[in-house]
Structures are given as C-alpha cells and as structure tokens.
Amino acid sequence: xxxNSKRSRYWSRFTTVIAIVAxxxxxxxxxxxxxxxxxxxxxxxxxxxxxxxxxxxxxSAIYLGYRVFDTFGETIxxxxxxxxxxxxLSRVESLVDTSLEEEHTIGSVSGxxxxxxxxxxxxxxxxxxxxxxxxxxxxxxxxGFYVMLYGHVSPGGGFQGGVIIASGIVFLALGNPQEGSxxxxxxxxxxxxESAAFLTLILVFFSGLLIGNGFFGNPLAHTQIxxxxxxxxxxxxxxxxxxxxxxxxxxxxxxxx
Amino acid sequence: MIILLLALIIMLAIYTLTSKDLxxxxxxMSAVSLICALLFTILQAPDVxxxxxxxxxxxxxxxxxxxxxxxxxxxxxxx
Amino acid sequence: xxxxxxxxxxxxxxxxxAAIALMGKLVHRNRAFAxxxxxxxxxxxxxxxxxxLTMLAPVVFSGGIVSGIVGNWYEGVGIAFRFDGxxxxxQILGYTIGLxxxxxxxxxxxxxxxxxxxxxxQTAALAATIITTDLFNLFVCLEVMGITSYVLIxxxxxxxxxxxxxxxxMVSASAMVFFLIGTYGLYRLTGALSYEGIAEGLRxxxxxxxxxxxxxxxxxxxxxxxxxAVMPLYGWLPDAHALAPHAVSAVLSGVLIKTPLFALxxxxxxxxxxxxxxxxxxxxxxxxALVAVVIALSQQDxxxxxxxxxxxxxxxxxxxxxxxxQLGIDTALGISLMAxxxxxxxxxAIFKGLLFLSVGTTIDITGERNVYALRxxxxxxxxxxxxxxxxxxxxxxxxxxxxxxxxxNGFVSKNAITYAMKDSMLYHLLIAAGAGTxxxxxxLSRIYLPGVPKLPMQRTPEGRRFKRVxxxxxxxxxxxxxxxxxxxxxxxxxxxxLVGRLIQPSFQGTLIIPALYSGENLxxxxxTALAGVLIYLVIQHPIPANLLHAIRTRPxxxxxxxxxxxxxxxxxxxxxxx
Amino acid sequence: MIERALLFTLFLIGFYxxxxxxxIIKKIFGLNILNNAAVILFILEGSRIGTDAPIMDGQxxxxxxxxxxxxxxxxxxxxxxxxxxSLALAVHLYRVSGSFDIDTIRMRIQDEA
Lengths: 257, 79, 578, 113
Fold this sequence. Notes:
The structure holds 4 protein chains of 4 kinds. Chain A is built from 8 helices and no strands. Chain A is mainly alpha-helical. Chain A has 2 domains: 35 residues; 201 residues, no CATH class. Chain A is extended and about 75 Å long. About 11% of the residues of chain A have low confidence. The model of chain B has no long low-confidence stretch (mean pLDDT 87). Chain B is built from 3 helices and no strands. Chain B has one domain. Chain B is mainly α. In chain B, α1 runs antiparallel to α2 and α2 runs antiparallel to α3. Chain B is flat. A two-stranded antiparallel sheet of chain C has the order 1-2. The termini of chain C are far apart.
C-alpha cells in the first residue's frame, strides 16, 4: 500500500504542475503584451462625460450611467448570494440542533426568523466591546450614508456606502443590550427594507421608459439636474446592499435578537 | 513603490496557502486586500480602493471568520 | 413603445416578477398573502414575456434586427445589444422550459418565495445572455446564470448536491476569471468592449498581436465551453444535474448548457479564425456524443443516466454547431446545419425536460433511484393514486423521442443533423451514439415494466411501497412537454426552413431539408434501433457488464476538472496556432 | 513590465491554490487571490495613461482611464459574493462529512448516498 500511495501522490503532484504550466503557456502572451493602452474612451469621457451624466466622479458616471445594466446584474448577484448563503446558514444551524426539517423550501428562508434561533452565549460580548461599538455605531452609520449619497462627487457610491452602512448596523447590533434589538438592527425590519429596496430599484429602471430613453436611460436627462438619476440609484443600491449584508452579518453572529 | 507592494502581496498570498492555521490565512487574506486598496490609491483609483477596502477586506473577512467559527481552525490533514 | 423597450421588456419582466415574489418574503406572517404575491410574481415573470415575444415576432420574421445601446448612452462606452432571429429563438427555448419547470415545481420541486425569486432571476439571466453583444456584459450575465444555479442545486437537501454545487462553483468561478483576463487582452488591443468595436479593432492589428488575440480568444472560448460541458470539461455536470431538484435539473440540462453555446457563436463571428475553433469544437462534440453514451450505459442511478445523456445530446448539438461555423453561416450547408443544431437544442430541451420530470415523479413516488432495483413502477404508482399511468406514457414519449423514432421531434432533429453532415467522420460517430442512446433507454424503461429486480428495493420510510405526492401540477407539466414532442415531430418540415430564415435572413438560396420519410432514411432509423437492441442484449453478458462496472466506478477526483480545463485550453491554443 | 511579471506569478499562485491544495478553504483562498490578481492587472494597466484620479473637479488634466475602474467595481463585488456562497457550501460540506479534504468528503458522501 505504501508504494501505491507514494506513486499516487507523485502522480497528483505531476498533474498539478502540468495544469499550471498549461495555463501559464496560454496566459503568458496576454500578460507580456504591451501595446499602448487605448485612450479613445478616456478622451470622450474626459471631454463630455460630465455634462452627459451630470456626475463629477467619472467612475460613478460609468457604472451608474453608461453601464448601469452591469451594475444591475451585480446587485442581482449580491441578492442571490445573500439568499443562497442564508439558505445554507439555516441548514447549517439546523444540522447543529436538528430542528424540524422544513419540507423542500429553500432552507425555509421565508420562515427564517431569528426569534426561534437558539440564543447562544456570546463569548465575544465583553462589556468593553459593547460600550465601544455602541458609541461608534451611529458615527459609522453616518459616514456610510455620506459615502453613499456623495457618490457622484467624491469617490464612493452605492456599494461602498452600503457596506459601510452594513458594518454600522452590525456595530449597533453588537452595541445595544442583549434583550431588545431595537432600531435598525432588528432583522425583520432589515428583510423588509431589502425587498422594498429591490422593488424600488426595478421601478427606477422602469422610469427610464417614461421619456423614451429606454429601460436604463436617464429619466432626468433633459432637466437641469441629470445627476439626480445617479444620486437616486446610489441611494437605492446603498440601502439594498446595506440591509442585505447587515442582515447576513447579524444572522451569522448567531442572531442579534 | 508598486513593485514593492506587489512583492508583499505575493509573499502574503504564499503564506495564506501554506499556513497550517486557517485563522492566520484569513488575516493574511485581509492584509492582501488592504495592500490592494493602498495600491489602488497610489494608482489614482479611489473608488476601487474604497470598494476593495470595504468589500474585500471588510465583508470577506467577516464571512471567513464565521466559516472558521463553524468549523475547525486547524488544517491538520496536511498534504 | 419603441422596439428596444420591448426587447428589454422580455428581460425586465421576470426581474420585476422576482421583486414582487421577494415581497412575499416580506409578509411571511400570513401565508396566504405571501403565496398570492409569489404567484403574481411568477405570472408576471413567466407569462408576460410571451406577449413581448409574440409582439416581436413580426419584426424578427421580416428579417429585422433590433440593435443599439442600452439606454441610448454613448456607443463607445455603453452596452451594445442586438436582438435578431437567433436571440428570439433562444428566448422561446428559455421561457418554454422555464414555464413548464415552474408549473412542475408547484407540485413536487422546492417552494418558497426565495426559490421563486431565484428561479425567475435565472430565466431573466438566460434571456439576457443571448441578446448582449458586449463582452463584459456577457461576463456579468454568465455570472448571474451561474450563481443562481449554484444556489438552486443544493435546495434538493441531498448531501451530494452541496458537493456538486461546490465543484461546479469552483470550476466556473475560476473559468470566469480567465474570461476576465481574455477581456483584458482584447480591450487592450482594440480599446472597445462591444463585439463590433473589437471586430473592427482586430482587423487592423499586426502580426505579434495576432498571437495575443488568439490567446484571448482561447480563454473566452474555454471559459464558455465549461458551461456547455463539451468533452474534456464535462466533469461537473453529472453530479450537478443528477442531484438537483427535478424542476431545476430540467432547466439546467434543457437551457443552461445551450444558451452559452449560441452566445459563443456571436463571439466567434468576430474572429478570422472562428471557423478553426468551430472545427475543433465539432470534433470534440462528436467524441462527447459517443463517450457520454457509453458512460450512460454503465450508470445505476436513473437521474445520473439522464445527466450523461444530456452530455451526449449536447455533443450532437456542438458537433452540428461547430461544423456550421466551420463552413460559415452564409453557405446553404452552414445555415441548415446551424438550424439543425438549434432545432436539436430546442427538441432536446423538451424531451430531456420531459424525461427528467417523469423519472423524477417516479423517484418521488417509489423512493428508489437505482435502475436495477426498481421494477413495475407502473403498478406501484397506480397504488399511489395514479389511476391512468400518465407518468409512464409521458416517459415513453420522451424515451421514443430521444432515441429518434419516426413520429417524434428527436427523429427530425437528429436526422437533420446527420443528413447535413453526410459523409464526414462525425456522421459515423453520431450514428453510433444514436444506437447507444436506444440501448440505454431500453435499460431505463425497464423500471416501469414488470420484472424481477436484481437488487432489493429500499422501503420508503413509512414502510409502505409509495409516498403521497401532489400529482395534478406534475401531470400538467409532463403532458404539455409530451404534446410539444409530438407537435415538434409533425410540424417540422416547415420549421427547418423557418429557423434557417431566422438565423440568416439575408440568405436567398434553398436550405438542405432532410427527406425525412424517404425509404433510405427510414431504413437507417430501423438499423440504428436494431443496433440499439443488440447493444442492450450484449451488455447483459458478464464480460461487457464488468467493463461497464469499471467505467462507472472509475476514480473521479475534484482536481481532474481543473486539469482537463487547463489541458483543453492549451489544446485549443495550440490548435489555433497551427 | 516587471509589475506584469509579478502579477503573472500571483495569478499562478492563485491557480495553484485552487488546483493543488486539497483543503477546500484553501481553494477558496486561491479563488480570492485569483480574483484580486485580475483586478490589480486591470487597474494597474489602466492607470498608465494618466496621472490624475478620474474626478473632473476642474484641475484634473490627464485623467486615468475610468472604464476599467468601473468594470473592476463589479468584478470585486461578484468575487466577494462567490466567496460568500462557496464558504457557506464549504461549511455545509464540513458539517455533513466532518472533513475539509475534498477527496475524503467525496468518499464519505459517495458511500452515504
């Protein structure tokens, strides 16, 4: 048996090297190619990007204006990932304390309410942590809203602001006393906010139809504030990302409530 | 400067894959994300730097730590 | 209502339905309201797009192409899209199977607002993948399609399903990063992301950059080929399709492995060496068809047998599609081959979906998946409340369709393919694969017929032989698919020319329509059927049975997926260089 | 030139992590590194043609190419979502099979099914 395992290990090491060398051969020309970087797109955007989309920050002009369909796909990927992870999470928890196996629903995400979640003693909830996060929470939340709403001027925007809001929510969940999870860190409220944000996001894209600019066009294109579209999108995406990631982190911490 | 940061990222990446303790791997991964964020600020890409810092280092570290808390920290199967 | 809005309506409606179904999660206090919200969302998402498609039909049939930039932004930076005959056909395929699979899932498959939301998002992603002509947008659509299937596969609560989803996720996610590197290579060369921009940029590049564009093309093709499960890269598919819930595996093998293939044909149209890639893919497709049938013959688990059949049938489609690209889409033979490839993709989606759903119902009722251990399932199902053996009849129609017997749609599309590639090496491969298909479906249909099982049958948990299962909505799904099989078979002579005209509107010549019911053709079908029966009798013999047992229990490890992925990519790169 | 060579090695390290390592969490580390390498490559090469950040607040003269930056925002978030989902699957696999080694998981799940 010893000879066989040594030979099989040698064989598996050999196939790994073959796979990596094969990939390296294909990748090398692309990495070493140094033709000059194309500048047409950059010149057009530098010249007329601002007044077309209204945003001073060109990157958010692109990913919320010109290529807003990609960003929409990305929000959907985030939504599906959170739903999938929550489904898996409840099944992992149920494997731990073999609760009733819900028949065929997707890990009973619909029925997943943290109230029946078995309260676990939180070793990490020392008093110091509670006081500090309790105080910092609102400040982080405020900063998150700033990053979200000023996406078109300073760097930042929907996603970055949303993640900071999510961490703000987690701080609040950690910070407040254990019994009631009042305020924004209550999981029920977060689920509602997330679904509402997703619906409003789609309605915003439908609004592009009104002035005949197509689904993802800018409805406020011909008004004086075309940047309004980007601000609205930033706000809605920020809310959606913030609530869904906040909800996931709270669920991962074993349930704030 | 960029080459120095890239070399640091490569060393951290090698460390994540070879370290026996997974928690050290997770910490090295978030260090890689942070250095990436630093690199992006140098390369005049502030948006991507904030995203990398917030999303890359922040959220994925939380998820990795949750995964480790729910399972075993030691990578004792070895090669 | 401009045409562009109508085109994007077919994508936004399922997403709007998904948002409404997600609101069902909001009010999960009272179940009734959540259920109605869910059904409204599913209705909007799966039924309304049909209205959009019928309104678009006249435009597409008259050879019109709806193309432009999403949201009328500047064309250098915005996302280009193009809605033509091919896109219309693939969306028909996606929405048919999506609607029927959702109806089936009301009866048996997973439920809950989260499942409906993700199912609708998957249907929308399928529709979006085919109309985009922008490289990065294709990346995002393939990611959305992928992540919905990674989440839907483990909902079947089987431990193996999580492992299958994990392997599928790792392979596709790393392939998608290589797709990103390919996009980087092309953007650097041509400065554009839309297909037209890249094509026009590539015309003016010099000799050395030719190598770089070939390598970038190799990465794009191999990243998409993983999702199409061609020969070297099919390792993830059998576990994923066999262990997913029945409704999900019908959509997975019906639509999810075909849309990337036809999206790839848009990319290959750009490159001057597109035909070489088509040539290699057709060879790989032919080999896939034969090898996958042999492995299918060796399988014990009913759904795994069907999954391997999906690989062999997609081998048919890829062979015809590759040869069509090789000959060029503007020649008569090329168009008829591409039309045959699409027809077989559509008909395969229908009869494979039918087989997955009917075998799924049988498995749910009898609780037994092993082909050798289950016998006279018709009697068991009659006791379970199925007076008229609907599942057996629908299974029979599906089995006859896949083994290409005259009246049904499989006969038409398989003959369209083999007729068009008359005397090439692929012809013989596909004929042999056809015979193997007949043999394996005789083996699978044994589970319904009375007989003595080789292995003892597991008792269902309650000790009785069957489990109460909600039949009506399953019947509706199975019967609609069976009717589609028959309709496809009878109505097809005009369908081939119709599809041909849709794929290449500017072609005036006559297509090569196979003389379906000619004496020589019927004789060939008879011969393949007899060969199939012969093969079935041969594998009862111990020597071939042991050989098949060896094939089934060959060690399949996780690393094999990646090694075959990188070797396949390197092979394609070398093929492009010589 | 050297940066691209370093990125090439980082890319191969990530690919080695996915292919060579048996431990599934290490594979997810590898996937993360692979994604990070692709993002750095895009941004590094995109910033060659300019000196200022793409914020048009008046005094930005030669700005960097904003298109790859917008694309990489999407790629980073998709990478994190894929990591989150794969970690949830990995923990579920650990709960079911009791080990993180991909081949022992396959063996334990095979004979259980």
